[in-house]
Design goal:
This protein is α+β, with helices and mostly antiparallel strands. The protein has two domains: 15-224 and 481-512, D-Maltodextrin-Binding Protein, domain 2, CATH 3.40.190.10; 273-479, Dipeptide-binding Protein, domain 3 (Roll), CATH 3.10.105. It is built from 18 helices and 21 strands. It has helices spanning 15-18, 56-66, 114-122, 134-138, 162-165, 179-185, 231-239, 254-258, 288-296, 300-306, 338-347, 367-378, 395-398, 416-424, 438-449, 453-470, 500-504, 506-509; strands at 34-39, 71-73, 79-81, 84-89, 95-100, 140-147, 150-155, 192-198, 202-207, 222-227, 245-246, 263-268, 273-277, 312-314, 353-359, 383-389, 408-410, 473-479, 481-486, 489-490, 511-512. Helix 9 (288-296) runs antiparallel to helix 11, helix 14 runs antiparallel to helix 15 and helix 15 runs antiparallel to helix 16 (453-470).
Length: 513
Amino acid sequence: MKQISRRGLLRTGMAAGVLAATGVPTLAQSRGGTLRLGLAGANTSDSWDGRTHSDTYMIVCAMGAVFDCLTEIAANGELVGELAESWEATADAKTWIFNLRQGVTFHNGAAFTADDVIASLNLHVAEGSQSAAAPIVAAITEMTKLGDYQVQFVLEAGNADFPFLLSDYHLLMYPHGSIEEAIANGIGTGLYRNVSFDPGVRTVLQRVDGHYKDGQAGWFDSIEVIAINDGSARMTALMTGQVDAVNNVVFQTEPLMRANPAIEVMDVTGNQHYSFPMLTNLSPLDNVNVRQALKYAVDRQELVDKVLQGHGAVANDHPIGPANQYYFAELEQNSYDPDRAKAMLQAAGLDGLNIDLSVSDAAFAGAVDAGLLYQAKAADCGININVVQEAADGYWSNVWLKKPWCASYWSGRVTEDWMFTLGYQTGAAWNDTNWENERFQSLLLEARAELDSAKRREMYYEMQMLCSQEGGVVIPMYANFVTANSTKLSHPETVGNVYDLDSNRIAERWWMA
């Protein structure tokens, strides 16, 4: 077996197990208190089934508190062990052996073993599963229990990023003999056990005694997570002291919060991007010229300035962000150009275009405003965008992946393969454009198995170009993670940037001041 290194981040052997869960040196944490969170991204259809999780509320409650994954991306970007202590691979990165943490128990008292790993991963490829992580698990051709605390994975092709993928928030570990019960009642191995769960309303969690992360994470005695999807109500809850931290800061209230000495506003740059995916199997979006016209019809800088209030940057219609290793910064920028947009429509045989755009601030904060700004500029391009404002509750289940053109967001992913696999691989549950490009799909498989960094870079550059020029998504802007919290909370100097709120692990990593 061989140790594989990617940017010096992928650790094997004991190194994976000895880093603190925060990824930074231990500070003066103290145990106690109740963390009260007011979060957007909640739905009445929420459950403890990780296959269905798609937004901050449930990710914070699940991966960030009640459940664990095999690996974890620490706040400083290091890949560390969570329920896996170490791992190693063959020279071709096709066969992996994971050594599991011993002495871990689920909240129902069952011991965590290799059987739980195999059963939990198989959930994602079970008949009828709509899990976004299905492509990750489908790439595993064999899962073999080598012992109670050792699992061997054989992949269909080599993948140096495989340990990163196992940190995906969908890939929660459940007790193999009682998975349905665990999903119904929220039974995991995490630092906090479920006390009460009212979907789309409120969740209460209690700290577990004698946890394997004692002394490294889990500083609160209890957690209360309140669903506050309305932005104004969420900001008010923080400013009046009803909650200790919120996500998705409403930028109009930011100056008021920054002027309040009891509130800290955090602006963290990652790979998050806001998008307008199109179902490319439907007319007229199946025409590449129409898609290109829509890409030339948006003023990206205007959206960054007015919707993000400067908390982000212009994007280029592909999902790889500035924090990724193989980000193609020199790629020719798609810019607002009415003449080119009209030319693309003419190439499609159209004199103009009438099209619906479904939006809701449930997709991302300011999505409605973004749609209206898009509409105004597109009019000069011969494109009439009818902005349809959808209900917030149920947006992800009723609109996204169903309406021909809509607003969406992605937090981005640490690796290029991870992002492209989840959102752009043919047949992936979260492929929200149904874009088919034979060359792109071929490169996806080749790059995944390529261990030469220079060759891999060339492949990912070409994939970004193909997506930008021919793909089915308009990605106008990268958005920073902007959250706010009471100064009664303390946190490590380095906070995670994979998702908001310290990569959604605020419940584990923060503490009372």
